[in-house]
Write a structure and sequence with these properties.
Shape: globular
InterPro entries: DRTGG, P-Actrans_bac, P-loop_NTPase, P_AcTrfase, P_AcTrfase_dom1, P_AcTrfase_dom2, Phos_Acetyltrans/Butyryltrans, PTA_PTB
Function: Involved in acetate metabolism.
Subunit structure: Homohexamer.
Largest sheet: 6 strands, parallel
Oligomer: single chain
Radius of gyration: 29 Å
Family: In the N-terminal section; belongs to the CobB/CobQ family. In the C-terminal section; belongs to the phosphate acetyltransferase and butyryltransferase family.
GO molecular function, one term: phosphate acetyltransferase activity
Distance between the termini: 44 Å
Helix content: 40-55%
Length: about 700
């Protein structure tokens, strides 16, 4: 029997929430193979008119190895023309031909049915059934439960399933999307009794964050001009209000992520809105749309320019009612820039879909090695399975808060933030995050009930270094010392810091009282380099400036053990400027000695050195230069001879290949403490917390 290599996502109406399923499927499949294709037989527009939002988002976000022009066969207009001329057979033949060329190139292809938008929708459902049948692909049906009763939803599901099954098309799953939370249990009960047990049934509630358009979508839909706050167009809009009443009444209607629509001559509403957005007593505002084409008075513009504007202010010519009506008609799309929505969509898929069962039904192919997506997927799964408590000392940093918000919402770790309570809660409120004292611990070291105990512990630990108690107390007001002491005392399982502090500031307390594991003499670091087709370990690119041969050997052994722990088979390359016995000189000899020490101390580790980078990673070059080596050409752990070489190489590889560098992860400490770079992104922080949590599971 031929192995299935595709899945068809089908719906019966527009705006059913197919994007959740498309994003979730691709995310799931990329955990098995990096070679995933995407195909939408019929798109709404030609690329030069308007590109398909789903296809664009999937290709760009997941870096799928496919060109846009290869992802579709026809535009809707061209397909309708052929239908009108009685040439349906030509449509199917072309679609089959295009799909078969993709099937040969990719391990698995996700196929997306049409959108049911605009003219010519009458033929679309039958067309989707016909395409799925001719491509021989199983179907995943997506239906919207919006505005329907449970019995109407169950009927729609059965009718759609039977329409496919009557044409002998296999339906493996049906997803009921956008169901009111109050109806979830009833819909699940009704659907499960009416749909056959061999079909996976999933009911997903309405996800407000996915339904809400961004201010950029509002701007584009209204054709509005941006007057101020262009950097905040990603703000989500959950609802809107008219600003046409007295200020005292107007303020009572402000809710989180609200869009304020008001005439451009209402300076009082404008200023009250901006002031409310800065106030700790009001939630974050999404933006302001000024209507009627009014020019804002110079005095008001002067006032706005002198203030800290953190909301977009848009301007349209139309009156308020017209603008508000257009806003209400927007259906939000997930675009490549909607990073947060993409994360929410994939998290929703994992939360509600029986992924294990779906994989058994669907994924029959095997891939070799570990792909970057597979690696990241596994990291999050490992961290979530044995939930740990991570302290983040830099609680006032916006990037830290955004990462913490994502970690908490996904249920990956428990989080403690350190810093001034009012400052942190004010920033959380301004950013519109979901962090609260109920789901995240916020501690000001000065006010902690453990402050004196921590200071006394530090004093006892450092008495041999002549540290006075007052100095210990003073150090304990430092968030890095306080956070490290939380880990030392077992009040947290690990710490991640460095977004606002130097590496030395982050690591110094750990070296002073967490110290190294038995048998390990130095702390070293590795990066997980997620290259397009594989994950490799780079060490040491962050800590040790010029290690000795003995230290280099210890770094290699620690890095090999880390690789094993994280599911990467270690094949260690000890890098130098020459390969094998060809080179001479002090630097080469250091690497040669270190290689021999690894072989002597750990006979189980596959190691080669000295070896050049190209011979280590390129199979052809490795075979030419070192034909008898079991590491050359397929190294998975690369050990650099010094910090200068390692740090520059990892950054060069990251920039030139678009690789994701996760780390640095510190090795050798008794308990996990990890450092961030001060230029780190929210994703960097997220990934570093995840690997810290996994380290803490030892």
């Amino acid at each position: 029997m031929e192995t299935n290599k595709s899945i068809f996502i089908a719906t019966t109406q527009p705006f059913s929430g197919k994007s959740i399923i498309a994003l979730g499927l691709v995310d799931m499949l990329l955990a098995k193979s990096h070679n995933i294709g995407y195909f939408k037989p019929i798109v709404n527009h030609a690329p030069d008119v308007k590109r398909d939002a789903h296809i664009e988002t999937l290709i760009k976000h997941f870096k799928l190895p496919i060109q846009y022009n290869n992802t579709y066969a026809f535009t809707k207009e061209a397909a309708n023309q052929l239908v009108e001329n009685g040439l349906q057979g030509e449509i199917i033949d072309t679609i089959i031909s295009k799909y078969k060329s993709l099937e040969e190139k990719y391990d698995f292809t996700v196929i997306e049915g049409s959108d049911f938008l605009g003219e010519g929708t009458a033929f679309e459902f039958d067309g989707n059934v016909m395409i799925a049948k001719n491509l021989g692909t199983p179907v995943m049906i997506v239906l919207s439960g919006e505005g329907k009763t449970p019995s109407q939803i169950a009927t729609a599901a059965n009718v759609t399933i039977n329409s496919f099954k009557s044409r002998k098309v296999k339906v493996i799953a049906v997803v009921i999307n956008k169901v009111e939370t109050s109806q979830l249990d009833e819909v699940r009960a009704v659907v499960s009794t009416q749909v056959k047990k061999d079909i996976i049934c999933t009911v997903i509630p309405t996800i407000k964050e996915l339904k809400s358009p961004s201010m950029k979508e509002i701007k584009d839909h209204l054709g509005a001009d941006v007057l101020f706050g262009g950097d905040y167009l990603a703000n989500p809009v959950d609802h809107f209000i008219f600003g046409a009443m007295q200020i005292s009444n107007f303020l009572n209607h402000i809710r989180a992520n609200v869009l304020i629509v008001t005439p451009g001559d209402r300076a009082d509403i404008i200023m009250a809105s901006l002031q409310a957005n800065q106030s700790k007593n009001y939630p974050k505002i999404a933006g302001i749309v000024l209507t009627g084409g009014f020019e804002i008075a110079d005095s008001v513009i002067k006032l706005i320019k002198g203030a800290d504007i953190r909301v977009p202010i848009l301007r349209v010519e139309e009156p308020s009612f017209y603008a508000a009506t257009k806003v209400a008609s927007i259906h939000s799309r997930i675009t490549p820039e909607s990073i947060e929505k993409i994360h929410i969509a994939t998290d929703t898929f994992r939360k509600y879909i029986d992924v294990d069962r779906l994989e058994k039904e669907l994924v029959k192919f095997n891939s070799s090695g570990i792909t970057p997506r597979m690696f990241q997927y596994q990291l999050v799964s490992w961290a979530r399975n044995k939930k740990k408590h991570i302290v983040l000392p830099e609680g006032i940093d916006e990037r830290i808060l955004k990462a913490a918000d994502r970690l908490v919402r996904q249920g990956i770790v428990n989080v403690t933030l350190l810093g001034n309570l009012n400052d942190i809660t004010g920033t959380i409120n301004r950013l519109g995050l979901q962090l609260t004292q109920d789901n995240c611990q916020i501690i000001d070291p000065h006010d902690s009930i453990f402050f004196e105990d921590y200071a006394q512990t530090l004093f006892e630990l450092r008495k041999g270094k002549n540290m006075p108690l007052e100095v210990a107390r003073d150090l304990m007001t430092d968030v890095s010392y306080f956070g490290t002491m939380m880990v030392h005392k077992g009040h947290a399982d690990g710490m991640v810091s460095g977004a606002m502090h130097t590496t030395a500031h982050t690591i110094r307390p750990a070296l002073q009282f967490i110290k190294t594991k038995p048998g390990i003499s130095l702390v070293s670091s590795i990066f997980f380099m997620c290259l397009p087709d594989r994950v490799t370990v780079f060490g040491d690119c962050a800590i040790n400036i010029n290690p000795t041969a003995e230290e280099l050997a210890e770094i290699a052994i620690s890095s090999a053990d880390t690789a094993t722990k994280f599911g990467i088979e270690p094949r260690v390359a000890m890098l130098s400027y020459s390969s094998g016995a060809s080179g001479t000189g002090e630097d080469v000899e250091k690497v040669r000695t270190a290689t021999e020490l690894v072989r002597q101390n750990r006979k189980d580790i596959k190691v080669e050195g000295p070896i050049q980078y190209d011979a280590a990673v390129d199979p052809l070059t490795g075979k030419q230069k070192m034909p008898d080596s079991e590491v050359a050409g397929q190294a998975s752990v690369l050990i650099f001879p010094d910090l200068n070489t390692g740090n520059n190489t990892y950054k060069a590889v990251q920039r030139e290949t678009g690789a994701i560098a996760i780390g640095p992860m510190l090795q050798g400490l008794n308990k996990p403490v990890n450092d961030l770079s001060r230029g780190c992104t929210v994703d960097d922080i997220f990934n570093t917390v995840v690997i810290t949590a996994i380290q803490a599971q030892e």
